[in-house]
């Protein structure tokens, strides 16, 4: 996703409530149901947010024997690579504690990956495009990203553009970008011969398009490949209100005054938000 369009935020998971302060009644009820279920499970001694990591580790080792790398397994499972890295010792000679538990939903997704499903092909481009955009936001020009990844001068730009148009990305390309992202995210473009002027141009390009930098994704690697997760990086309160009001009015047919009451704000605030962001403005039949 290159930038937000007229579509409202995603309201089918807990993310909008927990990450963005969404308080639509349906979203509040969804969160309360999850919270109540969690508390009941805790009281009954049945709450297991984490499970033993050993079956996951052994499954990943089995996949590796069949030439399915950790990056590829993570991409196929739809989980962040940062969820799997702590299950193994790094290969750079450094030592660190190995994690012995893993989130239950991550375990389920990884264990569902089979060698038979790992045939070469194409995959959703969301995570690939987001990684490229994050590096641009850090000051890496696309041409230099391409050079670092071994691509042609314009290929990285083509990946981002084709992703915006809904085209899938070749799996091997996605894995190359994921590897490059892990390598470049902690490095400075200036250390690789990129001038400060070009770094600033890249950052400004990303800022104008609200592309989150790598620091934004550092705590969200479990959703960087998720096309249903929509980052609200750089959005101001009034634009979020305009989007929420647009979504409520389109899906319920309510007028602005009733929508305002449902969102817990004034009608004047919605009017102001729509004036500032007319792309979301909407009227409904009386």
Write the SSE topology.
Layout: H1 15-20, H2 25-43, E1 50-52, H3 54-65, H4 70-77, E2 101-103, H5 104-111, E3 122-123, H6 126-137, H7 142-149, H8 155-164, E4 169-170, H9 171-184, H10 196-208, H11 214-217, H12 237-252, H13 256-263, H14 267-276
Antiparallel strand pairs: 1-2, 3-4
Helix pairs in contact: 4-5, 6-8, 6-9, 6-10, 12-13, 12-14, 13-14
Molecular structure report:
- There is one protein chain.
- With 286 residues, this protein is mainly alpha-helical.
- The protein has three domains: 15-39 and 236-280, no CATH class; 50-117, 434 Repressor (Amino-terminal Domain) (Orthogonal Bundle), CATH 1.10.260; 122-217, no CATH class.
- Helices cover 52% and strands 3% of the residues.
- It has 14 helices and four strands.
- The protein has helices at 15-20, 25-43, 54-65, 70-77, 104-111, 126-137, 142-149, 155-164, 171-184, 196-208, 214-217, 237-252, 256-263, 267-276, and strands spanning 50-52, 101-103, 122-123, 169-170.
- The strands form two sheets. It has a two-stranded antiparallel ribbon.
- 29% of the residues are buried.
- The model is unreliable at 1-9 (pLDDT under 50).
């Amino acid at each position: 996703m290159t930038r937000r369009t007229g579509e409202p935020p995603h309201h089918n998971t807990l993310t909008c409530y927990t990450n963005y302060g969404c308080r639509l009644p349906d979203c509040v009820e969804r969160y309360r149901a999850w919270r109540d279920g969690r508390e009941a499970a805790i009281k009954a001694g049945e709450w297991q947010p984490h499970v033993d990591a050993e079956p996951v580790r052994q499954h990943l080792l089995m996949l590796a024997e069949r030439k399915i790398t950790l990056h590829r397994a993570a991409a196929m499972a739809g989980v962040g690579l940062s969820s799997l890295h702590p299950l193994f010792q790094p290969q750079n000679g450094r030592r660190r504690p190995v994690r012995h538990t893993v989130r239950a939903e991550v375990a389920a997704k990884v264990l569902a990956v089979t060698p038979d499903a790992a045939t070469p092909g194409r995959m959703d481009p969301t995570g690939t495009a987001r990684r490229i955009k994050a590096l641009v936001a850090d000051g890496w020009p696309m041409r230099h990203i391409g050079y670092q990844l071994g691509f042609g001068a314009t290929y990285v730009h083509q990946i981002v553009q084709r992703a915006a148009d809904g085209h899938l990305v070749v799996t091997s390309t996605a894995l190359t970008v994921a590897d490059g992202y892990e390598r470049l995210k902690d490095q400075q473009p200036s250390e690789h011969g990129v001038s400060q002027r070009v770094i600033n141009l890249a950052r400004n390009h990303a800022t104008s398009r609200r592309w989150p930098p790598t620091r934004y994704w550092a705590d969200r690697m479990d959703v960087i490949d998720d096309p249903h997760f929509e980052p609200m990086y750089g959005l101001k309160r009034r634009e979020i209100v305009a989007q929420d009001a647009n979504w409520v009015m389109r899906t319920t047919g309510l007028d602005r005054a009733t929508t305002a009451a449902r969102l817990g704000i004034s009608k004047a605030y919605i009017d102001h938000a729509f004036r500032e962001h007319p792309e979301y403005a909407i009227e409904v039949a009386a």
